[in-house]
């Protein structure tokens, strides 16, 4: 058994996935103050088993904890409610030792029974968790989702502070799964007392606890005085105000009335903000685990020919498209974003080469081009991006008819395979956790190519599916470099087959008021969006 302890910083730095040393606090941070944040819309739920959108993700992370966690402002794993764990030599068994004395917001101490209850709950069909599938590697998962079991066979309470989790297959992503919101530990009595409305009455072990929720108006978090991480959080509370139009929120920020406009910088105001030194000084920029791409249906002519798909890649002027969105992104070369482990840094991607693209089309039997449809979500800036793509493809003889539709209609056409091309904007993949596998299965693997799936290119390469399974079976910490190289090879083969034309990687821009302190990364945290636990009032 390989034993991993909170105190063994060097060992943690070398394990798989990359576990890191504890966060070094900002020496200027101080306790106190309440941060005010605005949003146009209220959140739907604060139940960690249910919540799955960009807005509630950060809130849930501050109310709840899981066995694993991430170092603030990074994609590096660290220990959470587990103070140590052991992995069996075959990678099929994990034994977690829990931190003693951790209390839920209701005052009760957390135990291993709570961990088991929470994992059972998130995988029970009755919970209807959108994250259930992340736990498919745990032994007994199939029986749970199939309705023949009500408890995960692979999760066992050893003693009040020890839980054992057995897998049906080695899976190097397992520790990441233990860090996502869906793995948050919740108290059974609070869930049952909420009578189906736990999302409005959340109780966790997190740095903050909810003290008020006036639907449609305001949501209030207060500092958890019993939080198990000493000295955290810094803020006494966070107040969210709803019903605020983004332009109004920007004006309130400029007037010093709020601290963060939750919906970000309004697109119509972006250039104005960036051109004004005073406003630009309040802007914080960071990477997002996101790629915007064009899918091409490889199962239907003309995109069943790889030369055509490569020609499309070469015809796209990515730099110009980035300019269309005021340089709020960087040109992409491959499916993985640069901040993702496994990204191939020395791969330049397909060059922008109009004449080369024309030559490829001629070789494919389309010297005069062809006509096709491009599906796009009808919200700004996506139609403008689609128009730029349309112009680029016209330059090589491809006539593109734009199908600008509501998001559900684009999703339906992509899933059904009736969309020859789809611009992913507004629907593009943002990683659930920072592991290269998360960009493959749902959107490039064979399972995702089934009707209704998110693999809108309908690309299915069985050899790559096998390679993906092999890569994720490398759960031995000593094989980290080998595993990342395997994933790099998989994505380089994807680019050779060219089911996508990757266009850009989003960069997140937010603003913070002058009184707010904390490292910039905490306001554009790649995992939590805004990390409420570590920002502070100066």
CATH structural architecture of the largest domain: 3-Layer(aba) Sandwich
Helical residue percent?
A: 25-40%
Tell me the total number of β-strands.
21
Number of spatially distinct domains:
2
β content, as a range?
Answer: 15-25%
Number of DSSP helices?
17
Indicate the CATH topology of the largest domain.
D-Maltodextrin-Binding Protein, domain 2
Main sheet record: 7 strands, mixed
Specify the CATH class of the largest domain: Alpha Beta
Q: Kindly report how far apart the N and C termini lie.
A: 46 Å
The whole-number mean of residue pLDDT values reads 92
Rg on CA atoms, Å = 24 Å
Low-confidence stretches: 5-18
Shape: globular
CATH superfamily of the largest domain, by name, is: Periplasmic binding protein-like II
Global structural class: alpha+beta
Domain Solute-binding protein family: 79-449
GO molecular function: peptide transmembrane transporter activity
InterPro entries: Peptide/Ni-bd (IPR030678), SBP_5 (IPR039424), SBP_5_dom (IPR000914)
Pfam families: SBP_bac_5 (PF00496)
Q: How would you characterize this protein structure?
A:
- The protein is of the alpha+beta class and 538 residues long.
- The chain folds into two domains: 2-206 and 512-537, D-Maltodextrin-Binding Protein, domain 2, CATH 3.40.190.10; 292-507, Dipeptide-binding Protein, Domain 3 (Dipeptide-binding Protein, domain 3, Roll).
- 27% of the residues lie in helices and 20% in strands.
- The chain contains 17 helices and 21 strands.
- Strands 13, 14, 15, 16, 17, 18 and 19 form a seven-stranded mixed beta sheet that branches. A five-stranded antiparallel beta sheet has the order 1-5-6-8-7. A five-stranded mixed beta sheet has the order 9-10-11-2-12.
- A hairpin with a 3-residue loop joins strand 9 and strand 10.
- Helix 10 packs antiparallel against helix 12 (354-363) and helix 16 (462-472) runs antiparallel to helix 17 (480-497).
- The longest helix is centred in the last third of the chain and has 18 residues, at 480-497.
- The radius of gyration is 24 Å and the shape is globular.
- Keywords: Signal, Transport.
- This is Extracellular solute-binding protein family 5.
- One of its GO terms (biological process) is peptide transport.
- It comes from Rhodobacter ferrooxidans.
- It is found in: Periplasm.
């Amino acid at each position: 058994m390989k034993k991993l302890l909170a105190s063994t910083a060097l060992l943690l730095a070398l394990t798989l996935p990359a576990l890191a040393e504890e966060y070094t606090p900002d020496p200027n941070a101080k306790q106190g103050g309440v941060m005010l944040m605005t949003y146009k819309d209220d959140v739907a739920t604060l139940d960690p088993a249910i919540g799955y959108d960009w807005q509630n993700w950060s809130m849930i992370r501050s109310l709840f904890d899981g066995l694993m966690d991430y170092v603030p402002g990074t994609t590096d794993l660290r220990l959470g409610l587990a103070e140590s764990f052991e992995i069996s030599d075959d990678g099929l068994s994990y034994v977690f030792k829990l931190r003693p004395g951790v209390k839920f917001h209701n005052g009760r101490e957390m135990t291993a029974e709570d961990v088991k209850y929470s994992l059972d709950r998130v995988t029970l069909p009755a919970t209807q968790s959108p994250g259930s599938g992340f736990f498919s590697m745990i032994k007994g998962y199939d029986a749970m989702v199939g309705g023949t079991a009500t408890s995960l066979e692979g999760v066992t309470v050893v003693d009040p502070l020890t839980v054992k989790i057995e897998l049906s297959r080695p899976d190097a992503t397992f520790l990441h799964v233990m860090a996502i919101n869906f793995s948050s530990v919740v108290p059974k009595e609070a869930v049952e007392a909420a009578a189906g409305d736990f999302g409005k009455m959340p109780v966790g072990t997190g740095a903050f606890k909810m003290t008020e929720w006036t639907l449609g108006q305001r949501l209030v978090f207060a500092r958890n005085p019993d939080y198990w991480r000493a000295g955290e959080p810094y803020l006494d509370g966070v107040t969210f105000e709803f019903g605020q139009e983004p332009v109004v929120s920007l004006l309130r920020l400029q007037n010093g009335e709020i601290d963060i406009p939750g919906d970000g910088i309004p697109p119509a105001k972006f250039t104005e903000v960036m051109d004004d030194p005073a406003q630009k000084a309040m802007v914080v920029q960071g990477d997002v685990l996101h790629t915007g791409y064009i899918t091409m249906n490889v199962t239907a002519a003309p995109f069943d020919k790889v030369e055509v798909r490569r020609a499309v890649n070469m015809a796209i002027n990515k730099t110009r498209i980035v300019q269309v969105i005021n340089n709020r992104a960087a040109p992409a070369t491959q499916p993985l974003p640069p901040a993702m482990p496994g990204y191939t840094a020395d791969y330049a991607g397909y060059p922008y080469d109009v004449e080369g693209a024309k030559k490829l089309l001629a070789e494919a039997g389309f010297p005069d081009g062809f006509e096709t449809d491009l599906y796009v979500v009808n919200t700004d800036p996506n139609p403008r991006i689609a128009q730029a793509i349309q112009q680029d493809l016209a330059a090589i003889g491809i006539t593109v008819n734009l199908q600008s539709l509501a998001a559900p209609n684009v999703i339906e056409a992509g899933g059904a395979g009736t969309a020859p091309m789809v611009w992913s904007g507004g629907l593009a993949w943002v990683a659930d956790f920072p592991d290269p596998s998360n960009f493959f299965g749902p959107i490039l693997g064979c399972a995702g190519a089934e009707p209704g799936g998110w693999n809108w290119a309908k690309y299915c390469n069985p050899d790559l599916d096998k390679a993906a399974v092999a890569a994720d079976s490398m759960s031995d910490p000593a094989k980290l470099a080998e595993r990342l190289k395997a994933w790099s090879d998989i994505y380089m083969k994807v680019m050779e087959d060219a089911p996508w034309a990757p266009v850009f990687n989003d960069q997140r821009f937010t603003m913070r008021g002058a009184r707010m302190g904390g490292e910039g990364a905490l306001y554009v945290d790649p995992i939590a969006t805004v990390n409420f636990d570590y920002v502070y009032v100066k």
